[in-house]
UniProtKB/TrEMBL annotation:
GO terms for biological process: respiratory electron transport chain. It comes from Paraburkholderia saeva. PANTHER family: BLL6224 PROTEIN, D-2-HYDROXYGLUTARATE DEHYDROGENASE, MITOCHONDRIAL. Pfam families: FAD-oxidase_C (PF02913), FAD_binding_4 (PF01565). Residues 44-225 form the FAD-binding PCMH-type domain. This is FAD-linked oxidoreductase.
């Protein structure tokens, strides 16, 4: 129970917030706050003093100044679709959630500069749609795009399926508007490709998960709409063959290659088991499959001709065992649905041990071979659900309980030890234990363990300099 003085301070804070943004937008009833205090995977359940719903950057700044005055931790939250608990308050009931959903305006679309300026609460799918209306492409694409927000994408430096061609969210951002931990507003909304005027403050806040300040708006890059997209599925014998196929595809297609997704045979069969309408795409089983996509600025005929030459060489060299090219948009969508339903099929199959890791692309085959063998020896019968963005080295390397084994009991017995096997292997291969989901509160201990001491100290120095009171999303990313 809170000390009376603390309870009085918290009440004063909430009252001041009501005055600042209106009582309607300060939620305190547990029935209203519940959707904001549980993460998307339902791994973390927190509590909150209040959920604050400002409608402008100026209101965000006012609320942060009140948090400083009353010493209240602020937890920024976008669409609440994160996978590492980074936007969930702790269980103390003394932190305030600051929802950015009402900052949902598209401020400007500039086709000549190929930029769009959006507030942090704009849903990713809406950014894509507004870009398309202007005849442009916003290439960030991920499964949660119908509910995640651009602020959350920036805070976690989200990846998705287009990183191979267009880069992570960081590479798609030119400028930011940020409320600092002191409640000051920094307007860095400059749509410049070149700006060498000192430290790159923008990159400090991207990927920081709200621990250094709160992103309220951003200038994002747009690209020309491709004239055609052509999608194919290729069957291969191993991840090693997939890497050779990637090199061949890059040699043939260069920057036209926009997607290259690896999926194991078990992944595809798992989708077929739980979603029977999504049939296995090949006549017989193959160890691995790759979903690849070309985006062509010339024509569909040009893209298909290039695809045919690529597949002919891949088949002749024995890299590809079978292949099918989408004949229309519906079939292309069906191929992508196979890929996107893997996490859903996993959830239907039962609890599992998830890993969002990255290793150098050239090491992926060796990583999978070595780590699969180590897990098979440690937990016989464990089923590996391995899929991800092969073109950028990001694997979703997940472990399902053996068939017929209680999933909850399996996780209780093996989760910690399997995590260590996977992360030790990632470290040996000079990789990262978080590729696109962030650290949140899920992976702080592991990050502190695997990072070099000098790296951890530099992070702590930045945190102390920008947020000396530790009020910005305390308990996330860094200890």
């Amino acid at each position: 129970m809170s000390h009376p003085a603390e309870a009085s301070r918290h009440h004063a804070f909430v009252d001041a917030c009501r005055t600042a943004i209106g009582a309607t937008y300060v939620l305190t009833d547990p029935r209203d706050t519940a959707p904001f205090t549980t993460d998307w995977r339902r791994r973390y359940n927190g509590a909150t003093l209040a959920v604050l719903c400002p409608s402008s950057a100026q209101e965000v700044a006012a609320l942060v100044r009140l948090a400083v005055e009353h010493r209240v931790v602020i937890v920024p939250q976008g669409g609440n679709t994160g996978l590492a608990g980074g936007a969930t308050p702790d269980g103390s009931g003394e932190q305030a959630v600051l929802s950015l959903k009402r900052l949902n305006r598209v401020r400007d679309v500039d086709p000549h500069n190929n930029t769009i300026t959006v507030e942090a609460g704009v849903v990713l799918a809406d950014v894509q749609a507004r870009a398309q209306e202007a005849g442009r492409l916003f290439p960030l694409s991920l499964a949660a795009e119908g509910s995640c927000t651009i602020g959350g994408n920036l805070a976690t430096n989200a990846g998705g399926t287009g990183v191979l061609r267009y880069g992570n969210t960081r590479e798609l951002c030119l400028g930011l508007e940020v409320v600092t931990a002191q409640g000051e507003l920094w307007d860095g909304l400059r749509g410049l490709r070149k700006d060498n005027t000192g430290y790159d403050l923008r990159d400090l806040f991207i990927g920081a998960e709200g621990t250094l300040g709160i992103i309220t708006a951003a200038v994002m890059k747009l690209h020309p709409q491709p004239a055609a997209r052509v999608t194919a599925l290729a069957a291969l014998a191993s991840p090693h063959a997939a890497l050779d196929f990637l090199a061949l595809a890059q040699r043939f297609a260069g920057p036209l290659l926009t997607g290259f997704e690896l999926m194991s045979d078990f992944c595809l069969k798992l989708v077929g088991t739980h979603f029977p309408q999504m049939r296995y795409p090949f006549a017989e089983s193959h160890a691995q499959a790759v979903l690849l996509e070309l985006s062509d600025s010339e024509s569909e005929e040009h893209a298909r001709a290039l695809f045919e030459r690529l597949m002919e060489h891949a088949l002749d060299e024995g890299l590809v065992e079978d292949a099918v090219v989408a004949e229309n948009i519906a079939q292309s969508r069906a191929f992508w649905n196979l890929r996107e339903h893997i996490p859903l099929a996993q959830a239907e199959e039962g609890l599992n041990i998830k890993h969002d890791i990255a290793v150098p692309i050239s090491r992926i085959g060796h990583f999978i071979d070595e780590t699969d063998a180590a897990i098979a020896q440690h937990a016989p019968g464990a089923r590996m659900v391995t899929f991800g963005h092969l073109g950028d080295g990001n694997l979703h390397y997940n472990v399902q309980a053996p068939e017929g084994v209680d999933a909850k009991a399996f996780l209780k017995q093996y989760q910690s030890s399997i995590n260590q096997i996977v992360y030790d292997s990632v470290h040996r291969h000079r990789g990262s234990i978080s590729a696109e989901h962030g650290l949140g509160q899920l992976k702080i201990d592991e990050a502190m363990h695997y990072k070099q001491p000098v790296e951890v100290q530099l992070m702590r120095t930045l945190k102390a300099a920008l947020d000396p009171l530790n009020l910005m999303n305390a308990g996330k990313v860094i200890r």
